[in-house]
Records
---
Amino acid sequence: MSAHQPSFQRPLRLGMVGGGEGAFIGAVHRIAARLDGEFELVAAALSSQAERAAASGAALGLDAGRCYADWREMARREAERADGIELVAIVTPNHLHAPVARAFLEAGIDVICDKPLAISVQEGRELAALVQARKRLLAVSYNYSAYPLLRHARELVRAGELGPLRLIQIEYAQDWLAEPLETQGHKQASWRCDPALAGPAGALGDIGTHAYQLACFVSGLRATAVAAELSSLLPGRQLDDNVQLMLRFDGGVRGALWASQVASGCENGLRLRIFGAKAGLEFNQEQPNQLRLSRLGGSSELLSRGRVDSAAARAATRLPPGHPEGYLEAFAQIYRDAAEHIRARQQGRAPSTESLALPQVSEGLAGLLFVDAALRSQLAGGAWTAVDDLSAEAAGQQSAHEETAK
Amino acid sequence: MSAHQPSFQRPLRLGMVGGGEGAFIGAVHRIAARLDGEFELVAAALSSQAERAAASGAALGLDAGRCYADWREMARREAERADGIELVAIVTPNHLHAPVARAFLEAGIDVICDKPLAISVQEGRELAALVQARKRLLAVSYNYSAYPLLRHARELVRAGELGPLRLIQIEYAQDWLAEPLETQGHKQASWRCDPALAGPAGALGDIGTHAYQLACFVSGLRATAVAAELSSLLPGRQLDDNVQLMLRFDGGVRGALWASQVASGCENGLRLRIFGAKAGLEFNQEQPNQLRLSRLGGSSELLSRGRVDSAAARAATRLPPGHPEGYLEAFAQIYRDAAEHIRARQQGRAPSTESLALPQVSEGLAGLLFVDAALRSQLAGGAWTAVDDLSAEAAGQQSAHEETAK
Amino acid sequence: MSAHQPSFQRPLRLGMVGGGEGAFIGAVHRIAARLDGEFELVAAALSSQAERAAASGAALGLDAGRCYADWREMARREAERADGIELVAIVTPNHLHAPVARAFLEAGIDVICDKPLAISVQEGRELAALVQARKRLLAVSYNYSAYPLLRHARELVRAGELGPLRLIQIEYAQDWLAEPLETQGHKQASWRCDPALAGPAGALGDIGTHAYQLACFVSGLRATAVAAELSSLLPGRQLDDNVQLMLRFDGGVRGALWASQVASGCENGLRLRIFGAKAGLEFNQEQPNQLRLSRLGGSSELLSRGRVDSAAARAATRLPPGHPEGYLEAFAQIYRDAAEHIRARQQGRAPSTESLALPQVSEGLAGLLFVDAALRSQLAGGAWTAVDDLSAEAAGQQSAHEETAK
Amino acid sequence: MSAHQPSFQRPLRLGMVGGGEGAFIGAVHRIAARLDGEFELVAAALSSQAERAAASGAALGLDAGRCYADWREMARREAERADGIELVAIVTPNHLHAPVARAFLEAGIDVICDKPLAISVQEGRELAALVQARKRLLAVSYNYSAYPLLRHARELVRAGELGPLRLIQIEYAQDWLAEPLETQGHKQASWRCDPALAGPAGALGDIGTHAYQLACFVSGLRATAVAAELSSLLPGRQLDDNVQLMLRFDGGVRGALWASQVASGCENGLRLRIFGAKAGLEFNQEQPNQLRLSRLGGSSELLSRGRVDSAAARAATRLPPGHPEGYLEAFAQIYRDAAEHIRARQQGRAPSTESLALPQVSEGLAGLLFVDAALRSQLAGGAWTAVDDLSAEAAGQQSAHEETAK
């Protein structure tokens, strides 16, 4: 695999907001942060109730003094400590993403935040501006784009292996909301189906943003317009649970996106297909060790993780082919990339080229613009609706990082 | 397999219009008609040029006297013969479907016609009326719906195994027009990309109608409205080669349809997924011996052709499980069903229940209504556009057949 | 597909011995013979009981005068007719294969016989000698080797794409005898589990010979020695229903063969893997439209039927890629190849190169030698046991045919 | 997933012998030990050269004082420390497994050792006796048996879902030694192909033992006799690189095992199929999130990791279905189970029932007995050769552990 072993670097200090008992994604972040030895969890605001915050923190082995009930206090006090956290992971319901991110960025602490980045475009633009002003990292845990074979797919597109792109088909099908769990005391379902906590988008925000980010990440394109059909297929559900979208991307590329949380029998069916004039690519998240490349008029190739030879894929790979890697390894890659960014700044150097694949604030904002356009299309009876541009500032921030690395 | 061998019935006499040298689908019809011994080809108008018609007919072993250059003459003369054809297969370019069908129906001869049934709704309605007036068969070769496992899928839906339906995802992805073959002397491509011969719909009519018919066949539903994005992704192409559609079906069921002939690396990727409150179904035409049934909260079942136990599937099955059947067998089923209809009428009895799965004029007309709505939506900038109802007459015709069988 | 349509050739006249009511394989032969229009069934000895023979013949549309109860009489009388059969298909239980084949060959009639060719090596050698003396065709319906992608696989091996061969893994797993059907009046099971009718080998002869032929066909090698473990996993069963074999092929190539009729949940799992120094090949009969070629250190390619470009594959292909062909089409290829052999002789020319892939008496005999060695190994407690050579005569016969074609 | 979060337990102190620069498996053990937060690496003998040991240790963040060049010294000094290691991972070449394990067990330190446990049966028996005498843990990193779906498979067998077992087919196909890497300076290949370091078995010991353990683990059976064909398919290779085995298991169950390191195009193809009178199971390590259960006469079920409901599977599962887990998670499970054993002893309680799936010395010894019988069969020309019984003592040790838990 890697030709040399990295010299040792101490684990960075990690904090967490959200992710107490019963949360799914908090535990995922903790494993991901630990898997490569890049981070050590040392502080957290796991609950806004002091007692639960303390109990949950103790269950994770945290010092009592660093178990906070108030994330504002946590930001302030950690920023004051000599051994304060160097990165905070935000794993709260969506409505808190932006306020919490703002608090830590203002305290000078780097942030990794769950998607969607915020619940409004306005929040997202403010975060983008803040990131640029404070020169801090705001990573977004678009974990699926960290699969080695998707990073390789992006390289194939960039290298012209597909020819000029024509079409992008993306789908994300789940069934966990096929029954009205939000009326049955299911914690995850309750906040994700509540507009006050999840924001105005249901499946669209929860998984549609993942799907859209993946399409953009691999293709290098952004949608210019969408026509949307958002549905609540379960009677009485307050947010959309099924989303059909037609998409127009830069340069006349066409696309469609389907996201559903009521597709009975589907588990976590995130699937991307991209077609160019010369070849097509297919990736299915449930079998992430394989990428299918089908050349026009030729045979289909099954590319194996661990065998593909781009630097981008190698940097995100731990095991040889045939030894399956999965969801946690891809999630850990987000943390590994974030660690590289933090260490590079600490060491006064540019982050590695490969780590620039880390999704940051501009990708988070692009997701919000996409959601916003879809919601507006829905209000307009499904009419084609333009997706707003990223502001010059936000775009600038991203390219600044990239130029640094050259 | 079948518990008893059928008693012998002489092959019916078949004629063909179109399908001369270089045609793909004509040869398919001939194998399909012969495979089960149901039909014997005895007359044809394989070309409008007399010399080619004679040469092509001779190459198929036809009597010189029954090789016609003019299909009108063929209809007239075959109708006059005591041993005239009992069914004509129409395998011409689309613009001739309706005129040829009309000629044979008026001559009292049953018809099996390639899809799309016609190039306008008006033509389709006239054929529906004619069928009703003349009491003749007008079958449409929607061959994919004759796969045993799709017939079984329809039974599963009817039996409520999926619960109330919610969602239909259908796609049909090919790549054979990913290069501009129509400018390179390719016969198939030339007529299929020429509005004068193919009608106003390209991929939409050629494969989109197959996809839509399949969705309707299995679900038992029809679309009430569509929002369409038809594209010609190859510059200069005169007809659409890529189609994105959002669909609303009866009863609030949502759907999407994607049909493409420029999806590089795709061969004949017709795939249907239907989701209900209790389970989802998935069928991929390229692996037609398998149907996936995934129950909410349970495991996925892979149902095997030859092992499923509905009468509908058994009637369309020749081999035990593990002995793959394919495209030709499904196509032959269309002919077997048509033979059963013809024999039943000759024998003064109702056709078998299973043979009622044969697609007929009302399904052909439904396809035209679908195409028409999609074209109108496209003209209206992708706006949601109502799909016209089948006329009472056309609907009546189909149910008349079905009632006979009860 | 094919660049030109063949000029018409009248169907050849086919006879059949065996295959009356309730038989599986007789019906398969009839469809296969008819599918490409190469043969017309005109005479048969479907049963040794006159009444059943007549009834079964009538059910197939045969003239009463050509429905025989005695296959000896059939051979004699058909040989005397000016319009007598030109090929006889033998689809009886195994013990009759050799006697019936002998009768027809001696009458000067070409033969296509189910596998195994006979129930003893001695019978097989006599048939080989008879074929050579009479210059008639004795084809063996090793239908699986007629899949286009297996014929292509053979070309890949011959062309050195795999490098020097090292290993052959072959398996054939079914479950239809996982219950003691032979004690429950099941016709197929009853004769196949009865040594008097099936010969001394059970699963070994019934499906092991198919598997072995496929390995030899694609690799171009024959086994030189075997070590066998034959088991009757159902108590009281008279013949083996599960077979484990280790194999040594020509040139030090190693292999293993597993054939089972009691592998619960397996349908018709015939799978071949061949490995050379440069690449490996995998073919699974249940998905015959796909061949996997995996190059050492490279990606796996999925080769599609209809897209591979060898003459061998093209000659056995009817449909473009994505339009699945199956078991019946491969079986029909055996008949198409046999027709080509018969017509070539009738026309005083060599058969086409592609039709030489037709399995003939030497492959049938090779199967018997394999079975014989396995039975002897079993008697010797599983010791490595040499597989006898084909006699010089038998080998000579095959190469004579092949030389003719050059 | 799990209904409650575990209360915090401090990470246990881990040591490592072997696994310095360039080693594959050492890095795997380190990630696995860390993934669930169960262990913290604090001491190591990464190389027998003092300088390299120190450099490698520093690269892993170890204190210089706990980087040893001599594992005997490490065992002695760690045993003396109050904060000494609580478990040592042995990841050396095979010939050192037993001596190192002995040293640490004698020092009272628990051990987790790579497979094969030793290079002779004698060594294995001595270790079994030592474990029993010292009441310490000797776990063997048969990591594949820790996949949740294989643990579930074992439960299905135990619950009788397959009916009485009949057949076990197991294969492990790789291609990484398809070229003579051992002559080209490849470190892994060099020791694994050298009898002095790897022991007398090549592919047989390296991967055949994994395959055999898996078969035994899921079936609950052990082989009673084997007939072996060990080959070195690359000329000049000193150890076997391809292994064919026929197996007889307890109770008349038949089986076959194929292990190869020269099967071009295979990555890490470990595949298990078990057949009983009622159903068959199939597991493919390269797609470990899916288990296929095929019932006789019924459909095949695809069971998903995360959805199956046995306690055994749940205990080894971190993520919901559709979120793929892989090789590292299964490896981590070995460490999690070992931690549970150690903590249970520290806390004076029995380990959890689920953690008893951890492979221990008796399974390691069973692997050695299997290898020994295969080597003896090979010497006897492939004759059926009895597999020795586990000694009463060794067997007793395992059941003692199990009884403790009841």
---
Amino acid sequence: MRAWCFGAGLAVLGAASAVQAAEPVDLDMVSRIRDEAFHHSQAAALLKELTETVGPRLTNSPAYDHASRWAGDKLGGWGLANVHDEVYDPAFGRGWEFRSARVEMLSPRQLPIRALPKAWTPGTDGPVEGEVVKVELAKQEDLDAQKGKLRGKIVLLDDARAFEPADKPDFRRYDEEAIGELRTFPVPEDRDAGATDKRLAEFRKRQAFGKALNGFLVEEGALATLSISSRDNGILRVMGGGSRKAGESAGVPALTVSAEHYNQLVRAVEGKQDVRLRIDVDARFTSDDNLPATNTYAELPGSGKANELVVIGAHMDSWHTGTGASDNGAGVVVMMEAMRILKAVGAKPKRTIRLALWGGEEQGLNGSSGYVSKYLAAYPEPTDPEQKALPSAFQRGTGPLQRKASYDRFSTYFNFDNGTGRIRGIYAQENHAVVPIFKAWLEPFHDLGATVVTTRNTGSTDHIPFDRVGLPGFQFVQDPADYFSHVHHTDLDTYDHVVPEDLKQAAAIIASFAYNAAMREERLPRKPFRERDEQ
Amino acid sequence: MRAWCFGAGLAVLGAASAVQAAEPVDLDMVSRIRDEAFHHSQAAALLKELTETVGPRLTNSPAYDHASRWAGDKLGGWGLANVHDEVYDPAFGRGWEFRSARVEMLSPRQLPIRALPKAWTPGTDGPVEGEVVKVELAKQEDLDAQKGKLRGKIVLLDDARAFEPADKPDFRRYDEEAIGELRTFPVPEDRDAGATDKRLAEFRKRQAFGKALNGFLVEEGALATLSISSRDNGILRVMGGGSRKAGESAGVPALTVSAEHYNQLVRAVEGKQDVRLRIDVDARFTSDDNLPATNTYAELPGSGKANELVVIGAHMDSWHTGTGASDNGAGVVVMMEAMRILKAVGAKPKRTIRLALWGGEEQGLNGSSGYVSKYLAAYPEPTDPEQKALPSAFQRGTGPLQRKASYDRFSTYFNFDNGTGRIRGIYAQENHAVVPIFKAWLEPFHDLGATVVTTRNTGSTDHIPFDRVGLPGFQFVQDPADYFSHVHHTDLDTYDHVVPEDLKQAAAIIASFAYNAAMREERLPRKPFRERDEQ
């Protein structure tokens, strides 16, 4: 528990503050950036509009397009250059949106059930009623065993799960012990040679069975499926289901139910009671065809090294469950605000600073991957259709990386996508040459709690496609806040869970990092690159 | 934060364990009780039936009657004596139940709103739609100002509230530091002479305005009112509204909305957006007239001192919001289980041990107060109608306490009503003569974490009516668990938030306390008594 005893370790902070800057930093510009960021911030106002006027932004939903227009208008209005949307995938998938969902237990007693539909699953077209059954549907043999038994039934897909009381506060700031931990690098264990093949095989199996299950449930005439939320305390954590692809079966209505209510359903069914529900889901696909998916860009043009690029970004898309405030409205407005600040303080960068608001992050970093493939570097498209069907991370043997002309002119990418959490430092991704540079850039922000340059890697967001092709791409270290305890992909991912002061702090640091990267003599150094097939 | 650093203070536990018992304790009976409680427990099974087959148990609702029958059948089936329901209030109020509630924002964008109706408020009789307005309705002048403006409107009654991140774990066990704190007694500050009159004046004002507001909203044709939940993180904390009394206006449909959603509504309205909701509440009064309200009793008859009483109890009624598992299903099944254990181990108490399952606790300790007035002691009924209208705690000047014959033959009352939390000790309510007795009774349970006899008072539940008339009445010290952080009067008050091992531990300790009280030579000593008018 000592991790949660504060007051300790201030000495460590002192030590960090004592780091000497080998790298020149324009402290006058830091002052101007901080003044604009702290005393004229628009971050919270932007987030309120994005989350509560536009709302959640599922990729290719009408609200996503609304968000792109909204962002474009703001960025253009601030006088940024080259503001436009650009297609990264001409056939990403169908549009989808949901209006409401009502689930009621009718028997053995009346109980309103807390539930939300999975994205890209059909609505019920009005209220439907049916008996609840719990059957194993994990493999083809299970489907064969259930053939003819599920017509008109509502199917529980998961087991009940015991409540796990939280032993830590829901909302956390890193203390100095946790920050100190980040100053260490855990030497990697040897990777199981077959690990990737194993993950690939599992992925293929899951993918294939998912399609089979969707088709089976439709064919058998099941009314709906229910799954348990992966969070306790009534929190609904809901992502995608069905299929977004035209021509593929979207299955039957599929909802995620709060753990407290789901467990009651399982206990009643296993107690041999007659359990009946009424379900009314108003959800719909907004297109029959696969629609193109877009990113949104804007620039502060460079002068002198205008064709060299510094890119900052965050993902515009969200799940439909909350309003996408922490994931990743916070990142979107922090990055927009960083561009606004640089424009407002009259920054004249040597390199061009480009803002990218990505789509399709939640479906596999699609917007940022599309950007990297088109403009920086890509592996040859596989010809083998089986390989084609795989996410690029799984594709193998298509040949060496093909670098575009701008590959060498690219400097760096900075990303912000771990919720509201204030910046405490940055992940150097094992690029040791950037460590002294980042230490110098962070020093003017030690008084805001941003002190650590960790050599560790972090993943799972839009800096990874840059990192994968050997280009500098970085995500900041952020306080955990209640990101993973409460809001990540849940109905609590709303405006109230974002801390305006955190947004101001992040915007100031990112504006400064982007400016420093755009002004320094050299582009940021790169780390050793391993071809995909050698990994 | 040191309070959350465990491992400390085991020495204190050791010290506590070293307390010498002046009071004889039948350790053979303790062994038999523990064996039955731990190895043949029915507590969790009882709670599952009570919360998930019977469901929540609002006083005078059909489910409350179902619960009384359920408990009576169990208690009779175990061979307990004198099992029956008894009216404590011939005209408590009307029955009420609700089936479902659906609230959707239609404008400025689509959003399903998390909300539940307040008890004893009307349903909507199908879906209704209206504009949302936020107006001050706190005093008569506000009503005058709004006259003619609220027809067809949905009224926000509260301001938005800033999210407050939790800085402690939601689920807590007392550590030794917290237990040590309980071993101290804070000397009371002088009470402001006018404090009671002030509270009384406020109560009268609130009561009068509440009635005026209900009538006003009906007269003006408002569609519904919305209030903010007093918990964050989507938790719905919902008690009563409207009126349960026949002949009084129940007002318009009144719902409590999750803080995250309520704040969005306020921001949209204050942002001058056109906010429209659709509300569909299926709730109904199940009687036109005030129905009598009952407690449920059962006995293990004494032999030798059969007309002397040891009473153990908990309240059967709950709010309608969750399933009343922690508040107070846990207490009900712990007390039922204690009786079952005593019967199962063949206990032959000298004094009669009576189980009381109270109704109306949530509306003001009504069931237990009714019992005390009828059988033990009461102040004369006020004749002044104004006094009549007040809760008895506020009534004054009706003369000295009238003691019934059984007042002197009464020994003690034990209560359990603070959620699932395991017993860590007992509140002696400033009765110092019972301290050495309780210390001796607790010693065989030190190994279960029950170590402290605090001289402090605790209130707010069914031991208070006994305490108020100078009779021994006690509530146990229980681990906080997530009672006040999450489940108290909320939609999370469900079976999954109760820890079965805690129920076993409590049942063993309470069975032993009841047996000891029924067997000891003397009735439990009493503390100095102050007449109500002297307080």
